[in-house]
Write a structure and sequence with these properties.
The protein has helices spanning 16-28, 47-50, 55-60, 93-96, 106-114, 122-132, 158-169, 197-202, 261-271, 277-282, 318-321, 325-338, 358-376, 534-552, and strands spanning 6-12, 34-37, 66-70, 83-87, 133-135, 148-150, 174-182, 211-214, 218-226, 233-241, 247-258, 274-275, 289-290, 302-310, 350-355, 385-390, 405-413, 421-423, 434-436, 514-515, 517-519. It is α/β, with parallel strands linked by helices. The protein has a domain at 1-55 and 82-138 and 195-298 and 490-558: FAD/NAD(P)-binding domain (3-Layer(bba) Sandwich), CATH 3.50.50. The structure holds flavin-adenine dinucleotide (FAD). This is GMC oxidoreductase-domain-containing protein.
Length: 558
């Protein structure tokens, strides 16, 4: 790659959303000079990213595919810290995630619009979700020609058994339409490959020399230039550190887009002097904009992965998730031969987005009842939880799978009432962040059980079942050590709202108080969505591309 002297647009961060925006703009106008600066490595054609079933071992390895943010210990988690991963590498979360396909509830986007964001309603955004996808399972109201391929070929029977139990034993349950079935995945049935944004929006345009990606480079701050004295500052470039820790400045004539994700984007803004005056003063950073909402409003889904034993004749993915190179080889060989078999699967084959029945509401008590009445009753498309199966052991104790086959049930709360924050603790772009996710701070955030009724059930893997205080349905156990409880569907730390109501960007994604600076990633989501968040990242990316193309007078493909 021959570096250019200046660029038209620079992306600070090259994750799921950035690749969509940059790829769409480059495709529409190949003369546009675009630079993506990404902290992680290139991911092109690397088996750990493109072979779907390798996602688990890749995450469990604790390697360089993710940032692992260690939060401050909190009372609600028994004074333990929790660890929250976020994607790292070209494609960000889209190359490392669990490949589960679910969509936001329409009312989620309508809530965004109602917060003062014209053009962000479900009527505006669902067509953009369709534009991004080719949805292979037969369904109405989905896309049929987008770059992201969605399929759903079950490799085990565990998902269908789970759905059979739900249908037969839980007749009173409330649920929403998406998802309430076998679960689609971000996998192409034609190739068996993961459908991430790096390969499907960026690497497929490697012939375009004006679309450049710098991997292993960490953006430190935005460079500003005053427009006029006393007037807003204008973003003109970024300063980044190379893998060899050399500091480099690079300039953009039209726009800088911060797209470093829910943790990365507020950090870059704060290091650039945009944030709370108290924090900036304490860290000796020159204030560009007084914007105290930066880094606040952190939201996620709470997830518990609860493992069970199953019978030895059951098909599971344990040999790929936890197996030796020798055990994995036949599956990798089959995948290389014709893109089929267990290597194409994430093992997460069924799920239900559930709402409680009248009896459960009684059990859940008055605190949740208030949240139910105020938040869930007026929006019948919002689930309280997602419950789904994984046809493998979903924990990190390798002894668990020695000689026993396992399955796991995942319990996600979709709209936790608890809200947290993330801020920088120093000017150093490599320093750990001060993260307070707020998990379970509010007692309305709760859980539910099904696995013991499934035919494949052969007992709990007790060591990893949550231990509750007597009489409590919502407090985490008192065991020592860190706890994994986030989904990690992280969002909200640079929310799109009016400035006076705690916003960081306006509905055109412009950062308040400066010019030529936008944020485009899941940090702009002002409120939570009732789905895993990759789909919403695609939507934000497609919408950002439309906004930027309109402003630059570029015609985008519809
Ligand atoms: C482990 C995991 C599992 C998930 N499973 C699912 C799932 O099954 N289904 C689903 O729908 N969603 C899932 N998600 C969520 C989904 O992947 C995210 O919502 C999505 O990736 C968010 O996109 P983003 O653009 O906001 O951020 P990201 O994709 O995280 O991109 C941000 C990028 O910015 C880079 N960056 C950060 N700081 C800097 C810096 N200073 N300089 C340069 N680059 C920087 C990062 O390296 C990263 O590549 C999962 C996420 C994770 C992490």
């Amino acid at each position: 790659m021959q570096p250019l002297e200046t660029y038209d647009i620079i992306f600070a961060g090259g994750g799921a959303t950035a690749c969509v925006v940059a790829g769409r703009l480059a495709e529409a106008d190949p003369t546009l000079k675009i630079l993506i600066i990404e902290a992680g490595k290139h991911t092109k054609d690397d088996p750990i990213y493109v072979q779907p079933a390798r996602f688990f071992a890749n995450l469990a390895s604790g390697g360089e595919s993710c940032f692992y943010h260690i939060a401050k210990p909190s009372e609600a988690l028994g004074n333990r810290p929790c660890i929250i991963p976020s994607g790292r590498g070209v494609g960000g979360g889209s190359v490392v995630n669990m490949l589960m396909y679910t969509r936001a509830s329409p009312s989620d986007y309508d809530d965004w619009e109602a917060l003062g964001n014209p053009g962000w309603s479900s009527t505006d955004l669902i067509p953009l979700s369709n534009k991004a996808e080719t949805f292979e399972p037969h369904a109405t109201n989905h896309g049929s020609s987008g770059p992201i391929k969605i399929s759903g070929i079950a490799q085990t029977k565990i998902g269908s058994e789970f759905l059979a139990v739900a249908a037969a034993r839980d007749k009173e349950r409330g649920h929403t339409q998406d998802a309430n079935d076998l679960l689609p995945t971000y996998v192409s049935s034609e190739t068996g490959r993961r459908s991430d944004t790096a390969h499907h929006y960026i690497y497929n345009q490697s012939h375009n020399e004006n679309l450049q990606v710098l991997a292993h480079c960490r953006v430190n701050r935005i460079i500003f230039e005053p427009v006029l004295r006393f007037l807003n500052d204008r973003a003109v470039g970024v300063e980044y550190h190379t893998a060899h820790d050399k500091s480099v400045e690079v300039y953009a004539s039209k726009l800088v887009v911060v797209a470093a994700g829910t943790f990365g984007s507020p950090s870059i803004l704060e290091r650039s002097g945009i944030g709370s005056p108290d924090l900036l003063k304490a860290l000796d950073i020159r204030q560009i904009v007084d914007l105290p909402a930066v880094g606040e409003n952190y939201q996620d889904h709470n997830l518990l992965l609860v493992p069970y034993h199953t019978s030895e004749d059951e098909q599971t993915l344990d040999e790929i998730f936890h197996g030796s190179a020798e055990q994995i080889k036949p599956h990798a060989d089959q995948w290389l031969r014709d893109g089929t078999g267990k290597m194409t699967s994430n093992g997460i084959e069924a799920g239900i987005k559930i709402r409680p029945n009248a009896q459960e509401l009684q059990v859940l008590g008055p605190l949740f009842a208030r949240r139910w009445q105020e938040f869930f009753v007026p929006k019948p498309d919002k689930p309280v939880m997602f419950i789904g199966t994984m046809a493998a052991y979903g924990g990190g104790n390798s002894a668990a799978v020695a000689g026993r086959k396992m399955f796991t049930v995942g319990y996600f709360t979709k709209y936790p009432a608890s809200i947290g924050r993330t801020h920088i603790g120093s000017q150093d772009p490599y320093a750990p962040l001060d993260v307070e996710p707020g998990f379970l701070n509010r007692p309305e955030d709760w859980s539910r059980e099904m696995a013991r009724r499934m035919g494949c059930f052969r007992g709990e893997f007790v060591a990893e079942h949550p231990q509750f205080h007597a009489g409590s349905a919502a407090i985490c156990g008192e065991a020592e050590g860190p706890v994994g409880i986030d989904a990690p569907d992280i969002l909200g730390t640079c929310p799109m709202k009016p400035r006076a109501q705690g916003g960081v960007v306006d509905s055109k994604l412009n950062v308040y108080g400066v010019k030529n600076l936008k944020v485009a990633d899941m940090s702009i989501a002002p409120t939570n969505v009732g789905s895993n968040t990759y789909n919403t990242a695609l939507v934000v990316g497609e919408k950002a591309a439309v906004i930027i193309a309109e402003e630059l007078g570029i015609k985008l493909a519809m």
